[in-house]
Structure formats: C-alpha cells, structure tokens
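Morning. Coffee machine broken again, so started the prediction first thing and wrote up yesterday's gels while waiting. Chain of 214 residues, entered below exactly as on the submission form.
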Amino acid sequence: MQINMQEREITVKVVYYGPALSGKTTNLQQLHALINSTARGKMVTLDTTDDRTLYFDFLPIEFGTQNGFSVKIKLFTVPGQVMHKSTRKVVLAGADAVAFVADSQRSGASANAYSWRDMEANLKSNGIDFEQIPKVVQFNKRDLPDVKELAEIKKAWGDISTFPAVAIRGEGVLETFRELLSLVYRSIDERHSFAQNFGVSEEDFLKGVFQSFK
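Came back before lunch.
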C-alpha cells in the first residue's frame, strides 16, 4: 500500500495471476464493464498477435472517503506464458494481494501447479511474504468438460478461499473480487491501523468500491 499524505491518496495494488489463458484478462474485462465510467480509468491491454496478454492489463478504480482521502485500487494481470517470467516478477512488485485464476479442467492441473510455484517464487524475490499476502483462488472455466469437482478442489486447497467461475459469463468474478478486497482491508488495517488512522472501516472500504459498480 502506498500512502501520499500530501495528495491525500491511498493506493492499493491487486494482481491477477495464473497460467496462460486461464481467464485473468477476462476477469478484468468483466469488472471494467461493471464499473461506472466516472470511477474507473481506461483499461490498458497489451496483446500479442495470438491475443495472449504480453505484458499486463491495468484497470484503476477510485473512490473517496469521508475524511477526504482518495483510495485508488490498481488491478493488474500478468502474462501466463512461461517465457514471460521476468515480466511477471516486475508486475508483482509492491502487490498488496493476489487473485490466482486457475483452469478447472483436469488437463490444466500441471499448468496451475507450475504457475502457483512461480507466483510464490516471484513474490519472495520481491520481498513479499507469500504466507501473509492476501490471496484467493478462482477456479475458472467451470462450463468446460472434465473439470475438477468443487469438493475435490476445496479439500486440496484447504484454508485458501476458492471460488468457482465462468468468467466469460461474469459468473464468480464479483465474488472473487469482493473476498479478495475483504482480505486486503484486514491485512492493511492490521499493518497500518487503517480504520484508526484514516477513518475507513471494512464496510466503508467495500461500500466505497462497490458503489462504483452499475
């Protein structure tokens, strides 16, 4: 979290991580479509010729607090292809939370596992505590054949919050985002006494974000 007292701005960085074509960009596109244009910036997308994200997608959301601070939530995605490891590390720098978007199909299990280990390594390389950073897992593409059962997923992932999704239809996108923001708030409140120092409760924080949605 970045705090600019002079400009009275608070900036929170959220990164969507996961293997190639898992639905990271689709999540941001769905959020972008749901947010009022007055509360969001332009969504920046850099694509390769085969429509995979080359560097990152970026979607800023902004709202004001009762005590005159402006809260900016910057949403990024990373390229999932193995060759772009260095770019993923750069995008993760300074992250306050991560949403890991996994492919629900059994055929995607190895790619999910590789990407999760890659995320852990890159967070640690950036000096971010992998165990402490707020994170949720979205199991996307539930509409495709041969997907893992939800009970199997929950058993495998234990205490980490998991959400089923069909991001291309918007299903599970807001649920994933809301839970991640709740975890973000609790984390920054614990570290920075957010409620006490800035007069923003968890309810205020979530209301501030979601009042921007149509």
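Helices lie at 24-34, 85-92, 109-125, 150-157, 173-192, 194-198, 202-210. Going to sketch it on the whiteboard this afternoon.
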